[in-house]
């Protein structure tokens, strides 16, 4: 119906998601069985609902997101075969093996009813646990296996402003599983998990100085790209204004 394609003004509705990865160190036997025995970890990168379900070993994923997400495209490092991986049904994730960390480009495409453009987020694949120094530190394989999986997740909220009526109906017909209410203030990761840390180093911070620098570099790169794009469009606008001025002069000089 035509009324379904009318935007509901003044309404905003959001869906909480997480995106990130889990990585597990491989045993020597598992590495020997791989086509690339130099790979040290098996990892899974995913886009999930924020709340966790019945699987205690999985972060997030309580809700099926396919009612509003049509496709998630994970752009891996170019050294992987078919680095652009399209996932068109849940779970929206890709599992691979490897030895190095790199940035993953994640493009989330919404269902046609939404009328919304795709959104893009970035995640730095993390294979190794946090370090106190903030510098990369790769532990021996036996230590990494004993430490268990490494988790790196980012919480976000996808907000839809002035949604189409039919898309709003879809969203409201799929209520969100809410995160449990915290009865106390959040605690830093290294304080909440003291058993997995080296006390002699004073604990392991959840965010390191290296991560902070990498994020600052990415923000600066994005800022410079915006400046270049603004300058390009300013040049285009000046050229168009000159063309318009010339046409107006030609029009004024044309005999009536």
UniProtKB/TrEMBL annotation:
<keyword id="KW-0010">Activator</keyword>
<comment type="subunit">
    <text>Component of the SWR1 chromatin-remodeling complex and of the NuA4 histone acetyltransferase complex.</text>
</comment>
<dbReference type="GO" id="GO:0006355">
    <property type="term" value="P:regulation of DNA-templated transcription"/>
</dbReference>
<keyword id="KW-0963">Cytoplasm</keyword>
<dbReference type="InterPro" id="IPR055129">
    <property type="entry name" value="YEATS_dom"/>
</dbReference>
<dbReference type="GO" id="GO:0006325">
    <property type="term" value="P:chromatin organization"/>
</dbReference>
<protein>
    <recommendedName>
        <fullName>Protein AF-9 homolog</fullName>
    </recommendedName>
</protein>
<keyword id="KW-0156">Chromatin regulator</keyword>
<dbReference type="InterPro" id="IPR005033">
    <property type="entry name" value="YEATS"/>
</dbReference>
<dbReference type="GO" id="GO:0000812">
    <property type="term" value="C:Swr1 complex"/>
</dbReference>
<feature type="domain" description="YEATS">
    <location>
        <begin position="7"/>
        <end position="174"/>
    </location>
</feature>
<dbReference type="InterPro" id="IPR038704">
    <property type="entry name" value="YEAST_sf"/>
</dbReference>
<comment type="similarity">
    <text>Belongs to the YAF9 family.</text>
</comment>
<keyword id="KW-0234">DNA repair</keyword>
<keyword id="KW-0539">Nucleus</keyword>
<dbReference type="GO" id="GO:0006281">
    <property type="term" value="P:DNA repair"/>
</dbReference>
<keyword id="KW-0804">Transcription</keyword>
<keyword id="KW-0175">Coiled coil</keyword>
<keyword id="KW-0227">DNA damage</keyword>
<dbReference type="Pfam" id="PF03366">
    <property type="entry name" value="YEATS"/>
</dbReference>
<keyword id="KW-0805">Transcription regulation</keyword>
<comment type="function">
    <text>Component of the SWR1 complex which mediates the ATP-dependent exchange of histone H2A for an H2A variant leading to transcriptional regulation of selected genes by chromatin remodeling. Component of the NuA4 histone acetyltransferase complex which is involved in transcriptional activation of selected genes principally by acetylation of nucleosomal histones H4 and H2A. The NuA4 complex is also involved in DNA repair. Yaf9 may also be required for viability in conditions in which the structural integrity of the spindle is compromised.</text>
</comment>
<dbReference type="GO" id="GO:0005737">
    <property type="term" value="C:cytoplasm"/>
</dbReference>
